[in-house]
Amino acid sequence: MSRLAERATADFGTALLPQEHGGPAPAEFVERLDRYLARMPVTTRLAVRAGLMSLAAASYFTTGRSLSRLNPVAREQVLHRIAALGPDAGAAVDGIKVIALLANGADTYAHELLSRAQEQGPVRPDAALSVTASTDSPSVIRADAVIVGSGAGGAMAARTLARAGMDVVVVEEGRRWTVEEFRSTHPIDRYAGLYRGAGATVAVGRPAVVLPMGRAVGGTTVVNSGTCYRPPLSVQRRWCAGFGFGLADPDRLGAQLDEVERTLQVAPAPRNIMGRNGNLLLDAAKALGWQAAPIPRNAPGCEGCCQCAIGCPHNAKFGVHLNALPQACAAGARIISNARVERVLHQRGQARGVRARRPDGTAIDVLAHTVIVAAGATETPMLLRRSELGAHPRLGRNLALHPATMLAGRFDDDVYAWRGVLQSAAVHEFHESNGVLIEATSTPPGMGSMVFPGYGAELLSWLDRAPQVATFGAMVADQGVGSVTSVGGVPLVRYDIAPADVAKLRVAMGAIGQLLFAAGAVEVLTGLPGARTVSSPAALQEALQRSSPRSLHLAAFHPTGTAAAGADEQLCPVDPDGRLRGIDGVWVADASILPSCPEVNPQVSIMAVALAVADQIVGAS
């Protein structure tokens, strides 16, 4: 980092978290933020540094002084003025704030996180996996089938094919993590290492949507919440009847859903471990007469340490790296880790395998006549395009994100939302009518500080009161209006939320506010400009009516639909059985083939559909 960049970072720290009011020393702030930035892709890191330099320059232009030479109140005023210049300026300041708070909070609470991780031993050992790092792999491998991606879809396909007697190789871009690493590695290093782009991927739009996606042996199942909902029957029927995706016929898919739940050992989160955050949601829903229940999860042995999102330090969350992948390996499958698949090899309309790259750029060719692409909804269309298999006009389009928002409520007494299950209970009252699923959800301590408003003394005051805050989130079933394209070889995710889905978000936020007040919150943090906090449901509704869609703070964890499967050759790049149209031997078995938003956390949907596709492959072999 240059001295100028270091000074700009320190100046921002003095404005965001001033030492005079209990914030970190400037040098400590710089060290914390740089630790995270160093793990980001170069383009993202440069963009953040450019933003910090711009903020420093803005202080000089508007006050004639650097931020660090202003008094704390004047520093806050500079940030407020810049953020108020317009939606784009506000989004830029908020984006840098989110990154800074994540880095600072993870370090502030690192001792608590690691102590909690080490309170008890793992409930199960790491599974036996046949994993070879790409650096140790031969440069040419032959197999019957090669699977790109080891997450929810790839793992289930690998198990099915291997058990059918096929020689299977799984190629995974990420690396294998061990439970001991989850128990001892600094939280920000776990976060940056387990997510694509160090967890800083964003869908560009108005508003921008934060889009974290896992990258590891086991894929996103290593870092998801462990929530395991079946797709609603209405969704299954829509996929089958509306899109002609016959594998989703409820009478047919039911067997696969049963098998997925057995594999994952799905059971409702026990109330005695979900923590106060989840119990507040259930009690509030009961008081309002709303439908609610503990969330079904794949976490046998969970004790509620709230670290699902950065790798379970007890191996309690039962991701596919602990079940389907070792079962596939027991049947003979092999995994190559740390290898990014560059292209699908094909000749005269027939798949021939894949070419992957080691971190040093050297190639590995896995030769096989069957290729299953399970790289996820943002990576699968990019891989197919790089392979000159992307001629279908709808490939990379139809992207649904299942966008999510969160509100927080401050209570008079302590809640400690992070002491319990990360995602524990849900309200279903508005799910069928509005496509809104509300869940009690938290983050590892310190890593959800972005819910707090303001800068300087105001922000630090909220951080001090973090133990008194409960957090409820909601996801809305959205239209597939997004897309994945390439700019200079780098994926660009574009998503402008549809007006109908903005209306759903307003319903969701209003309902969350009612729940928080019914639970006893004295004020609710909205994230809305002009009404950062409200003290009644009526005040929240008024703020929502005044809000612009561009002012909403959104995240998304469930991208789907970019290689939709169905009968219509014009609309669906993938046929009803999971075959990519236009070539023999290439199949798709991940979230990208779900024709529309599954309306629930999609892990079970992806795994069940992948099982169905794998059965088709076995039948065709």
First-last Cα distance? 55 Å
Low confidence ranges:
none
β content, as a range? 15-25%
Count all strands and give the number.
Answer: 24
The major β-sheet equals: 7 strands, antiparallel
Can you describe this structure?
- With 621 residues, the protein is an alpha/beta fold.
- Helix content is 38%, strand content 17%.
- The chain has 19 helices and 24 strands.
- A seven-stranded antiparallel sheet has the order 8-16-17-18-15-21-22. The chain has a six-stranded parallel sheet with strand order 1-10-4-3-14-24, covered by helices on one side.
- Helix 2 packs across helix 5.
- It is globular.
- The N and C termini lie far apart (55 Å).
- The mean pLDDT is 95.
- Belongs to the GMC oxidoreductase family.
- GO terms for molecular function: flavin adenine dinucleotide binding; oxidoreductase activity, acting on CH-OH group of donors.
- Keywords: FAD, Flavoprotein, Oxidoreductase.
- It comes from Mycobacterium kubicae.
- Pfam families: FAD_binding_2 (PF00890), GMC_oxred_C (PF05199), GMC_oxred_N (PF00732).
